Model the fold of this input.
Amino acid sequence: MSAASKEYKRVTVKSLTEMKSNGEKIAMLTAYDYTMAKIVDGSGVDVILVGDSASNVMAGHETTLPLTLDQMIYHASSVVRAIDRALVVVDLPFGSYQGNSKGALAAAIRIMKESGGHAVKMEGGSEIKDSIKRILSAGIPVMGHLGLTPQSIYKFGTYTVRAKEEEEAKKLIKDAKLLEKLGCFAIVLEKIPAKLAKEVAEQLAIPVIGIGAGGGVDGQVLVTHDMLGMTHEFNPRFLRRYLDLYTEMTGAFNQYIDDVKSGDFPSAKEQY
Done:
């Protein structure tokens, strides 16, 4: 067996570094509940992100901002109970780490203790370095997140591609190097030019995982509900739909309703 195809019984932060060194791409998906996490983990995905995208996908909010720390812990603990193999990374929600490093550490400790998650993810660069340092000092692994940072949507005012201009691109590279220096074990780059993302991945020793950042990075992440076609109204360029569950599920629900209305369900074999 080649190093690049090494089988990991349990994926750890060290495993991801080995994958990058061996040229093996990292596959990452989201999950927010036990049932979905059980299926995703069983498929052999490397990392499961309990994202604050639960705010949109599970709760129907327009942004990720409303999600609370208690809600993140609830989702994360549900996911962790389903996992046998994947590394579980949990988003620190908006307001739990910005501008308050002591509060950031307290939030991260709660996530680790109460959910059983394996690491936390934080959005931002130099602006949150004190919070990252304090969390890392407690032995909690941190994944960074640069580029489009949804928790800062009201600052940017749009979900369009980030770092297209030279000044912002230079800051992103500088921030990525800072996150590595601080001790982050990986970085997510969201919705930035593919050329820039490739440049960042080549300059860092830690894995760079992209979403809308092209194929020159060390791995990819998608929101599971999006790639399964459950959220059919969301159609960014970077999204590849592997199923059309919206249509499939709607058809199944319609058939069930028809069967109940007609008396076809339950049949004689479906009774006691």
Notes: The radius of gyration is 20 Å. Residues 245 and 251 are 9 Å apart (CA to CA). The chain is about 40% helix and 15% strand.
